[in-house]
Each structure stands twice: as C-alpha cells, then as structure tokens.
Amino acid sequence: MLAADMKRRLAILPLLLAALCAAPLMAAPAATADGYLQLGFDRLAGFRFVAPPYDPAADPGKPLPTGEEQIPAEVKSWNGKKAVVTGFMLPVKMDGGLVTELLLMRDVMMCCYGVIPNMNEWVVVRLKKGVRPLLDVPVAFHGELKVGAMFEHGYMVGIYQLDGEKMVPL
C-alpha cells in the first residue's frame, strides 16, 4: 500500500516540476531608476522561448513565424521604454576600434566558449557612438528597448534590441 502511494506521488513529480519551470519567474514589476527600467536576465530570460526553425522553402510573400506568442505580456509591455540592461559584451561590429553593435550576453560562458544561449538570453545593442571593447567584465547599457522578433536575411536573430545611449562598466 505504501509503495503504491509513493509511486503515485513520484509519478506526478515531473508534472509539477514542468509546471514550475514553464511559469515566468517575474513576480513583481520591474524596478525603475532615473526613468529607466532595471532589467536583468533574470527577467529577460525568465520564460521559455523556442525560436521557430528556419524554413528555406518558406513563401517570401508570407509572414515568417516569430514565436512572439511565447513572450509574456509584461515583457512585451517593455517595448519602446527606456531600460538599463547588464551583461557581458560580445562585439559584432566595429568602426575605428570602437564597438558599434554587440550582443549583450547573460553569461560570459554563453556563445563560442560554452553553452549556446537561448534567444532570450542576449540583447542586440546598437550604438550611434561606438564604445571601447570591454570583454569578460559586466557592463550596463542604457537605451530604448525593443521587444519582438527581429530578422536579418530571413533568419531570426533575436527578440531584444537596445538602441544604446551609454555604457557603464561595473
């Protein structure tokens, strides 16, 4: 009798864990300071996001799948707002020795040296005025956040973009 009861209880454990993992980790609204939302990757990556696969046979006249239905309403509400995001710089475009576009990564071990990040674990940061490269240390970028699927040449490249105003080394 006890063994059967224990088996039944253990059988629902994976279901409970799956429900907890699927729920967003955002309980309280994002804090603000000096008019900027304070957004960490605990919030930006606090939900499961699976990027739709690239389909080379897709009809170019039809909209591409975006996966935006997976983005929680609270996260979508940050679109167009001033935000500060902290992470690790991975430069992707440079001009005159200054970084003009980068991926702001959740973790220094994500990307080429470790785990492939989920699409909600990076922010594409574009800067009108470049900044000096600062690698392997956390940095904070201030700017206007855009939330939604972004495509380049038919490939989905991200769901977050920050039009950067300034960088603050931490």
The helix/strand order is HEEHHEEEEE
Number of domains: 1
How confident overall, as mean pLDDT? 85
Please estimate the helix content. 10-25%
CATH-defined architecture: Beta Barrel
Number of helices: 3
Structure description:
Mean pLDDT is 85; it is low at 12-25. It is built from three helices and seven strands. It is 17% helix and 40% strand. The protein has 170 residues and is an alpha+beta fold. 22% of the residues are buried. It has a single domain (30-169), classed as Protein of unknown function (DUF3299) (OB fold (Dihydrolipoamide Acetyltransferase, E2P)), CATH 2.40.50.870. It is globular. It has helices at residues 2-22, 41-44, 73-76, and strands spanning 32-33, 36-39, 82-95, 98-105, 122-131, 138-152, 155-169. The termini are far apart. Strand 3 and strand 4 form a beta hairpin. It has a five-stranded mixed barrel with strand order 3-4-5-7-6.
Q: How is the topology of this model organized?
A:
Blueprint: H1 2-22, E1 32-33, E2 36-39, H2 41-44, H3 73-76, E3 82-95, E4 98-105, E5 122-131, E6 138-152, E7 155-169
Parallel strand pairs: 2-3, 5-7
Antiparallel strand pairs: 1-2, 3-4, 3-6, 4-5, 6-7
Entry summary:
With 170 residues, the chain is α+β, with helices and mostly antiparallel strands. The chain has helices at residues 2-22, 41-44, 73-76; strands at residues 32-33, 36-39, 82-95, 98-105, 122-131, 138-152, 155-169. The protein has a single domain (30-169), classed as OB fold (Dihydrolipoamide Acetyltransferase, E2P), CATH 2.40.50.
